[in-house]
Every structure is written in structure tokens, then in C-alpha cells.
Amino acid sequence: MTFTHSKKLDHSKDFILPCRKDNLNTIKEFLPIDKPDFDGSFSTHQLLYGKTGNRIYLIGLGEEKHSAQIEKTFQKLAFETQKYWSKSIQVYAENLSESEVNKAVIGLEMGQYNIGEFKSKKEKNNETSITFASTKISNKILDEGQYTGETINRIKALVDAPPNIKTPEYLGNWAEDSSKFANYKCTVLKHKELKNQGFEAVLSVGKGSVNKPVVIINEYNGNSSTKIDIALVGKGITFDSGGLSIKPSTNLHYMKSDMGGAAVVLGVIELVAKLKLNINIVGIVCSAENAVDAESYRPGDVINSYSGKTIEIIDTDAEGRLVLADGLSYAVKKIQPEYLIDLATLTGSVVRTLGYEAAGMFTHNEEMASTMSKIGYNVHERVWQLPMFEEYKSDLHSDIADLRNFSGKPITGATNAAQFLESFTEEHKNWMHLDIAGVSFGSSPYAKMKSASGFGIQLITEFIKSKVMS
């Protein structure tokens, strides 16, 4: 799919006609009939035919409250109708703001995602050229929307990929390939180097798998400063059996998605590099497969970590916080970023708390919390701040190690996990943890089974942009 810009709409050819709810007067001049059965309700569309037999797709943008989700209505239109499109189609964008055009492009690009990558017979998307007709927009807006949509599709493909393909090494190869065409630096630390540098928690989690762990370090330097503005750390568990604390078999096949946080980190670094933002960022992905084997780490073990702190293992299914602990310690000690954010599909507790509509946000920095919350509403990737009260920390107490990895209690699980991670941040003043377990992967109108949502790419990229501007 390619996107171009024109100042005029060709009425004789196919075009898409966006409209707010109950606001048909704004597009009346383009309608072939006076009263179509269409009111502009959000995520609706209707096909009309023009005088030359050209297709006119009316598309509903809904009310003002739907502004943050405009890409969804364009995604749905593309998904349901693009098989009928010719090689080119127009979008009348004179009534759209630059932000709305950006969202429209993202949605159209997201409509190209094909979840059936591993089927023997693949469906092919039409190669369509889409022209936005407006006197107000620039090619830069179109490019940014396309880069964003493409990146969302790429991380969705990563999350949806089967675990026999998507090993830790596969993530490392993905990052290396990405770094070459997006122009950033990628370093993949493998088993020997992880041992030499002291990534003991990552190694412990990966001991039971034939697919050995890796740590991926992606560096994008958008300016000449030596200071790193933002470090992102992602949980990259490519399959989570639960280890010896094995999970029930129901929905176990969905544990291929336990690297959703890593996917966001990989995608954001790629996108920021494509956008050439004036900022320096580092992405760290700690990736392992949590498997069951004679060499698997056990409940009751005491393991070491990059920080030097010892950890008593209560539950081997609380493995994500272990790999993140090493990633956070590495970021604090080696990179010393101004802002430090980790993302992970970490706990079922956050799903029970917030459901599937928001990520759990944990931080002591209210400025970061306010900024992230506002951005979340603007891009419809919402976050909700949960408490980190001092009283909860007693749940991390261990008699035989510096701390334990799981409280064993059926309450405050997401907070306990966040406070475990906090123990490895050296009290970094600008640290935030995002638990995306409920929003990274789930039910979708575009698949019969659960699949990746793409959550996090716009949220984190817009946060990064807010720091470029400040």
C-alpha cells in the first residue's frame, strides 16, 4: 500500500468520504443521492455509486468522543472492502485535521495485517495506491502514519508467531534485520556473554529450554549528545509453560504472547529510527523460554541477578519479573537514562483489576503518570495508575535471600510484581512499569481466536515525542 497527496478530489473515480455523526451536510456536494441510509455513526460504512459507476464509500467517524479511535473505523473499512478496490482509491480529507489524517493512514495500514502468515495458502492483499485529497496536509503526515501502521503490523506478527518459530534467537535476528533497514545499532548478547556479564536471572529462567536466552540491546542516537534520554525494557518470554510451577493446559497455547512487552520495545525503537526523532533512546529486551526440563530452576532455589541481589524462587511462573530485573539493573548501571520504562505482559492480577481496556501503570513520578495517562486517552491506548504503597513491600520478604519473587497471596499481585521490579531500579526517579497483560493480546473482530492488538506502539512513541519537544 502506498500513500500520496493531491489537492483535488477526482469525482469520477473511487473515493472514501469520511463524515462525523449527523453531519452529512459537510459532504452533501459529493453524494449521488439526497438521503442515503447513513448517519456517520462510528465505525460504520456504506457503499454508494457515482455517476460514472465509481464507488463512493461513506465512512462514519462518530462523535467527538470517538476522535481517539479514528484509525479503527478506517481499519474496519479496509478489512471488509479492500478486496473490491481497484489499484487506486482516494480519501477526501479536506475536513480532517492532520491528526485525523495520521490516524486514517494508520488504520488503513493496519487493515493490511494478515494473521494467516503460516498457512500453506496465503491470502494476498491488493497493492493499492491511496491518495489523500486535501489542500492542508503534507506528505510528512502520510509517511508518519504509514510507518506507524507498518510497525504495529510488524509487532502484531511477532506476538502472533508460533513459539517453535519465535525463539529468543529469532527475536535477536529480527532486531538485527530491523537495525539494518531502520539504521540503528543492535547488539545481541548470547549465552556466553550473558554469563560473563552477570545476567544470572535471565539465565536461570532459560535453563530448562533448548532455545537459549538472549539479551537484545538496540540503540538509536538521534542527536550528538552522549546522554540517553529514555531506556525501554521489555519482557521477552517467547513461551511460558510456567516452568516447574506449570500452568494449566487451558489456553496454554496463548502463552506464545508472553513477549508482548518485548515486541513493543522492538517496534518503538524501529519506529523512532524511521521517524528520525531528535532523541537518544535504548531498548533492552531480555528474552528466554520458560520450559520444563531436568535443568529447570526450581521453587525454593535462590538465584543471583545482574544487580547482585539474591532472589528466592517461590513460583517459577513468576519468571517475567526475573528477566526484567536484569534488564532494569543493566539500564540503571550501564546506560543511566533520564527516563526508564519497562513493559510486560506480567500478571493475571492486572487483568482481574482493569479487564481488557487499560494497562496497569506503576510509578512514583506523577509528572510521568499524568503525561502517559493523557497520551493514552489521546491514542486510545489507555493506562490506569495503581498504588505502590510502602505497606505492600512486606510481601517481598525472604528469610534466606534478599527478596522473593512471589508473595503467594491471591491479592495485590500486580503491585507486588511492580514493587519487585522497583527493587532493581536503584530508586530511579523517572521509572515507570506498564503491565500490559490485559491489552496486548485478546479477542479481536479480525480473528476467530485471540490475537495481538498492537497496544503500546503509539503510546510509547507519543511519550517519546513529548520529550523531544520539551
TrEMBL record:
InterPro entries assigned to the protein according to its UniProt record, in alphabetical order? Leucine_aapep/pepB, Macro_dom-like, Peptidase_M17_C, Peptidase_M17_leu_NH2_pept
Active site positions, chain numbering: 247, 321
Q: Write the record's keywords in alphabetical order, separated by commas.
A: Aminopeptidase, Cytoplasm, Hydrolase, Manganese, Metal-binding, Protease
Q: What is its EC number?
A: 3.4.11.1, 3.4.11.10
Question: Which residue intervals define the domain Cytosol aminopeptidase in the entry?
Answer: 155-460
Give a Pfam family name. Peptidase_M17
Q: Where does Mn(2+) 2 bind?
A: 235, 240, 258, 319
Q: How is the cofactor bound?
A: Binds 2 manganese ions per subunit.
User: Which prosthetic group or cofactor does it need?
Assistant: Mn(2+)
Q: Which reaction does it catalyse?
A: Release of an N-terminal amino acid, Xaa-|-Yaa-, in which Xaa is preferably Leu, but may be other amino acids including Pro although not Arg or Lys, and Yaa may be Pro. Amino acid amides and methyl esters are also readily hydrolyzed, but rates on arylamides are exceedingly low; Release of an N-terminal amino acid, preferentially leucine, but not glutamic or aspartic acids
Region forming the signal peptide:
none
Task: Please give one Gene Ontology molecular function term for this protein.
Answer: aminopeptidase activity
Places the protein is found? Cytoplasm
Source organism, top-level taxon: Bacteria
Residues binding Mn(2+) 1 are 240, 317, 319
Class of the enzyme per the UniProt entry, highest EC level: hydrolase
Summary of the function given for this chain in its UniProt record: Presumably involved in the processing and regular turnover of intracellular proteins. Catalyzes the removal of unsubstituted N-terminal amino acids from various peptides.
Q: Please state which protein family the record places this protein in.
A: Belongs to the peptidase M17 family.
Q: What is the recorded name of this protein?
A: Probable cytosol aminopeptidase
Query: Which species is this record about?
Result: Winogradskyella bathintestinalis
Gene encoding the protein: pepA
